[in-house]
Amino acid sequence: IYSGVEHPAAGYRKIFESVEELTEPIPAKITGVVPSWLGGSLLRMGPGLFEVGDEPFHHMFDGLALVHKFDLKNGQVTYYRKFIRSDSYVRAMTENRVVITEFGTAAYPDPCKNIFSRFFTYFRGAEVTDNCLVNIYPIGEDFYAVTETNYITKVDPDSLETLKKVDLCKYLSVNGLTAHPHTDTDGTIYNIGNCFGKNMSLAYNIVKIPPAHKDPIEKSQVVVQLPSSERLKPSYIHSFGMTDNYFVFVEQPVKINLLKFLTLWNIRGATYMDCFESNDSMGVSRNPAGYLSSHKFRTSAFNLFHHINAYEDEGYVIVDLCTWKGHDFVYNYLYLANLKGEWEEVKRAALRAPQPEVRRYVLPLDIHREDQGKNLVSLSYTTATAVLHSDGTIWLEPEVLFSGPRQAFEFPQINYSQYRGKKYSFAYGLGLTHFIPDRIVKLNVQTKETWVWQEEECYPSEPLFVPTPGATEEDDGVLLSVVVKPGAERPSFLLILDAMKLTELARADVNTIIPVTLHGTYKPAS
């Protein structure tokens, strides 16, 4: 059993402090042995500039996007980073102030402009941010840094140069897409986003981007549209699930209030965070592809950011999720003032926040009227239940796979290329204690056994799984995580763990602090 670690020295503050980009890659000092087969680049995204001039950014998702790269080649490792030249960044640098409103930080009109030009800015509405700090992933031959708005940014994965800002609205009817696409075995990319549906009501579009074409984004299309259960308040979607035959979409109680969104843009000091609201009344409906069939899956309220995996087995869809109990929005607890507080304050704030839990839900696909009131789940290996009610809804109760007081298993990863949408055993995640990342955890979703890597005063990031070439076991591979150790002579390192045992194979230390990274991708050497 994992016992909570304390961080009284508050070294975690360092991962929320601004850094400068590098002019060239710097060599890392290697301890241990990097597997000879491991050649390629680990690309990571996160905030790198937490203030502009004397104006601070307020939320963890506001800092200007910094792309990081660890190159692994012949047992040697180098590290490089560059700011994305987004409009948010370039204009902030030019005017030395926050020019475009970010997730939790408002931009104010330029005080130097006269009253008329301010007046016109007011009516044009605010500009949507292109600060793509959340993830970086390939589409066809190209790499794109993304956030959750309609703007994505093409980046050169070698030089880290910013190549082009792309507006998804030109190709698709979506207001934005998640930063967590799915990739099918043939290279087709699927994603989901909010959109305007019929007669001015909101809906969700699942979109696909075909593989291999020269400009895949231009060939993207909407696959299916799901109506929003509240006409003007779509749920916030951060990710979704995909099995061989189904998309799994969870409509959570955290909603985007469209009317607020449209009016707030004209109110001084309003941000994206002001447009969210949550209520407990709706419950959560879960709808596989038979969305418009007569059955709705419901369960008690939770926040959801990351799907772990989903698969079909014996007439059921099994859905594994990183949940946060209740309807209070978790992002309310990710303001930098919270995260950079004294340890005792950080702990106090986390006491009020929703509690994290890894859950498995099981959705029966074959439902008969006469089964009313019975548990429809007969799978031998789960305690999750599904009960048909007289109104046709199916009430789900989860099986808890991992739960500890204020101990989150988050930023989940799996052996994606082999096991996405398949029955699987292992998930790897970042362990958060009171929202502070302080360990790497491996979870056996079948036996609930856990393995932990952690080290004094070390703050890791999302572990990415890279399979050993020709591997036959699901967990035969390595985990790559960027770890910050603020007090050390070389305060950051790339950690390489054996994914089977969670033991250290090597680390590559660099003499620069690396601020928090959110998500990323491993690009094998071509």
Automatic annotation (TrEMBL):
Signal peptide range: none
Organism in which the protein naturally occurs: Anabas testudineus
Cofactor remark: Binds 1 Fe(2+) ion per subunit.
Key word Lipid metabolism present: no
Gene Ontology BP, a term: retinal metabolic process
Binding site for Fe cation: H180, H238, H306, H519
Designated name of the protein: Retinoid isomerohydrolase RPE65
Entry's Gene Ontology molecular function annotations: all-trans-retinyl-ester hydrolase, 11-cis retinol forming activity; beta-carotene 15,15'-dioxygenase activity; metal ion binding; retinol isomerase activity
Keywords: Iron, Metal-binding
Cofactor requirements of the protein: Fe(2+)
Superkingdom in the source lineage: Eukaryota
